[in-house]
Write a structure and sequence with these properties.
The complex is a heterodimer of chains A (568) and B (75). Chain A is an alpha+beta fold. Chain A has 15 helices and 17 strands. Chain A has three domains: 213 residues, FAD/NAD(P)-binding domain (3-Layer(bba) Sandwich), CATH 3.50.50.60; 102 residues, Succinate dehydrogenase/fumarate reductase flavoprotein, catalytic domain (Flavocytochrome C3, Chain A, domain 1), CATH 3.90.700; 125 residues, Methane Monooxygenase Hydroxylase, Chain G, domain 1, CATH 1.20.58. The termini of chain A are far apart. In chain B, the strands form two sheets. In chain B, strands 1-4 form a two-stranded antiparallel sheet. Chain B has a two-stranded antiparallel sheet with strand order 2-3. Classes of the chains: A alpha+beta (568), B alpha+beta (75). Bound molecules: flavin-adenine dinucleotide and iron/sulfur cluster (SF4) (2 copies).
Chain lengths: 568, 75
């Protein structure tokens, strides 16, 4: 295995939504610094927005809402657990990001007067800005990366963060085509590798039939953990109401402003608000368990021109293959509801609220290591949050690196990592990654899918720890298979964290995301705090403890303002 | 370890009569890196059955040689 050594000033790991923005902002702030984007896929079409996006979910636009209102809404939606200063950044800088994207050629929906045409999907405020022509978003972003002459290395997957005396100094990586190993030194590193989208197993049984782009296997969650960074509230899972089997968003966000809504088998409303929250997911779960399923997105009561307008958006953007999915089943929105189901679990702060612990500058607990986008714990951050957090991290990092020299790479660490990478290749007839991953993720479903039971979670935790031995039996015949094998390490780390954290928080919170059958109520007295997971530096064991929330910027009375979305 | 190769229905179909020998567009953009050229024919094919049915391959093909089906298990 050849080793390629590189040295840069600022390294962006993951050239997706957050990563492309971060690289551009870093270069703009400090044109003489070397900035490198390391990407597992190809930045032209990678990550969650590979095929564009059909709307902005968290747009705070002057005249429509204020950053303070936005912070209050998310505080309530997330049952009080958040660092308001980080969420506030999304509110403060989102408008700027939208305007800049517009200059780059991204189109947002405007009304007849040329004003941004915001829609209400959240419980109180208007934060959804449609992008019916958003399909080229990722191409536009990657063009900006090129235009700013930023170096990009595609098809290299980061595998570990290098540290020295508790400071991040670089990463190791694997070229997923040539099989070469990379050792890249950098003064600061931004991890923005997206969600852990391959945690639970989709009901279809297809490993890659996930909601998230399956390239995002929890890489950053695991790499940050292994480097000794803090992760917070991992028990707050991502669970989405999705098109059954297809596992993409049914997209009430797009359709509800046109009059569509989520309905039960009788065609009646059972939730008052379509915004994805744990509370909403709990209502869906209850409805399905009361004999009122299946739940569906109802459009068949709308007129022809409205339905075709909705179709144009949904079949062109974001997850365009849904058109052929429905066609194959002979389904038509004029007659049929979009049958929905509760997804398998994942980890994603873009939608929910678990990830690497960051402050308002997206600093992790390790100096020199930043996190942004879906993997950084800034609750309900979505796409604009990814752009904002990428930008904030990059701008802060360019100041941080000014007075810093490169660290020294520990060759023992690199050799150990090389051994880890070589193990599956040295065992080409070992168990294929498909089978090893399938069983691991089926265990995740069996033991962690909410509602959560204590004994189940304990069995799960033991199984995930034991699974290290199964991983030792993995075999790979080429660098591509090796990539999949190394991703299983990431998934296993996430599964262990998810079980550990779910057992630790002995209350229920965030609706279905952390609904414990043995502690069915929220207990603010004991649990209005973060749960932190961190690798112990003494014995490499996974530790978990409570940490106080940061003081709020804006007072919110959570006893009065309950996030209740059931239809009485 | 005993290994066997199972037959699977793969989602991506390439029309070999259209696929250009010198092109690699679909292979370059696929986020899952599952497409490759068949060294014997010079035509693209789905080498690994790991598809997100996301469609960049189809959209970027200059000659419309690619059809992405919904993977059988979801279809
Ligand atoms: C189907 C879907 C629909 C959505 N709809 C909306 C919407 O309508 N509105 C909205 O506001 N938000 C929406 N979101 C959420 C939004 O898209 C995400 O929150 C946001 O794009 C996340 O950005 P990110 O940079 O964290 O991740 P991504 O954009 O996914 O980028 C992660 C990048 O890291 C790369 N990578 C992964 N692992 C490694 C590794 N080990 N080494 C190197 N590179 C790696 C990936 O290839 C990828 O390029 C949606 C998400 C999905 C999946
Ligand atoms: S649909 Fe997406 S994942 Fe499947 S082959 Fe095409 S680009 Fe790759
Ligand atoms: S993009 Fe089209 S022409 Fe080019 S290699 Fe792929 S299938 Fe062939």
């Amino acid at each position: 295995m050849e080793i390629i050594n590189l040295e840069v000033d600022f390294l962006v790991v993951g050239g997706g939504t957050a990563g492309c923005m971060a690289a551009v902002k870093a270069k703009q702030k400090s044109p003489d610094s070397s900035v490198l984007v390391l990407e597992k896929a190809n930045i032209r079409r990678s990550g969650a927005i590979a095929m564009g996006m059909d709307g902005v979910n968290t747009a705070v636009i002057p005249g429509n809402s204020t950053p303070e209102q936005y912070v209050r809404e998310i505080t309530i939606a997330n049952d009080g657990i958040l660092d308001q200063s980080a969420v506030h950044k999304t509110g403060l800088l989102g408008f700027d990001v939208i305007q800049e994207l517009e200059e780059w050629g991204v189109k947002f929906q405007k009304d007849n007067e040329g004003k941004y045409d915001l829609k209400q999907v959240h419980r109180v405020g208007k934060y959804v800005l449609p992008m019916p022509e958003g399909k080229d978003l990722k191409k536009i972003l990657s063009r900006q990366v090129k235009r700013n002459k930023i170096k990009v290395i595609n098809r290299v997957m980061a595998t570990r963060v290098l540290t020295q005396n508790g400071r991040a100094i670089g990463i190791t990586g694997l070229d997923v085509r040539s099989g070469e190993m990379y050792v890249i030194k950098s003064k600061a590193i931004l991890l923005c590798t997206g969600a852990c989208g391959r945690l639970g197993l989709p009901a279809s049984g297809y490993l890659y039939g996930t909601y998230e782009n399956p390239t995002n296997a929890g890489d950053g969650y695991s790499m940050a953990y292994q480097a000794g960074a803090k992760l917070s509230n991992i028990e707050c899972f991502q669970i989405n109401p999705l098109i059954k089997d297809y596992n993409g968003p049914a997209c009430a966000y797009v359709a509800s402003p046109f009059g569509a809504y989520t309905a039960n088998a009788s065609g009646n409303r059972f939730i008052s608000c379509d915004y994805w929250s744990g509370q909403m997911m709990l209502e869906v779960w209850r409805e399905l368990n009361s004999g009122q399923g299946p739940v569906h997105l109802k459009m068949y009561h709308l007129d022809e021109s409205t339905i075709s307008e909705i179709e144009t958006i949904l079949f062109d953007n974001e997850r365009p293959s849904r058109e052929r999915f429905h066609a194959g089943r002979g389904e038509n929105y004029r007659r049929d509801g979009v049958e929905m189901n509760i997804s398998e679990i994942g980890l994603c702060s873009g939608h929910s609220a678990s990830g690497v612990q960051v402050d308002e500058f997206m600093r992790t607990s390790i100096p020199g290591l930043y996190a942004a986008g879906d993997m950084a714990n800034v609750p309900h951050n979505y796409m604009i949050g990814a752009f904002v957090s990428g930008r904030v991290a990059a701008e802060h990092a360019m100041d941080y690196i000014k007075d810093i020299d490169h660290g020294d790479v520990d060759s023992d660490f690199v050799n150990t990592e090389k051994e880890r990478l070589l193990a599956p290749l040295n065992n080409p007839n070992g168990i294929p990654h498909t089978q090893v991953e399938y069983k691991l993720r089926r265990f995740v479903n069996d033991y962690l899918q909410p509602p959560k039971s204590p004994k189940n979670m304990k069995i799960g935790l033991e199984k995930f720890i034991d699974y290290k031995n199964v991983i030792d039996e993995l075999g790979a015949r080429d660098p591509h298979e090796l990539m999949r094998c190394m991703e299983i390490h990431f998934i296993r780390d996430c599964a262990e964290m998810a079980a550990k954290a779910s057992l630790y928080r002995t209350e229920s919170r965030w609706g279905l995301y952390h609904y414990r059958l043995d502690f069915p109520n929220r207990n603010d007295e004991e649990w209005m705090c973060n749960t932190i997971i961190k690798k112990s530096l003494d014995n490499n064991e996974m530790t978990i403890f409570k940490e106080d929330l940061k003081p709020y910027l804006f007072d919110v009375n959570l006893n009065e303002e309950k996030y209740d979305v059931s239809v009485a | 370890m005993a290994l066997t190769s199972n037959r699977v229905d793969v989602p991506v179909i390439v029309d070999e009569s259209k696929c250009l020998d010198k092109c690699k567009a679909c292979i370059e953009v696929c986020p899952l890196d599952v497409l490759a050229k068949n060294p014997d024919t010079g035509k693209a094919y789905m080498k690994y059955d790991e598809c997100w049915f996301c469609l960049p391959c189809e959209k970027e093909c200059p000659v419309g040689a690619i059809t992405v089906q919904i993977p059988f298990l979801l279809r």
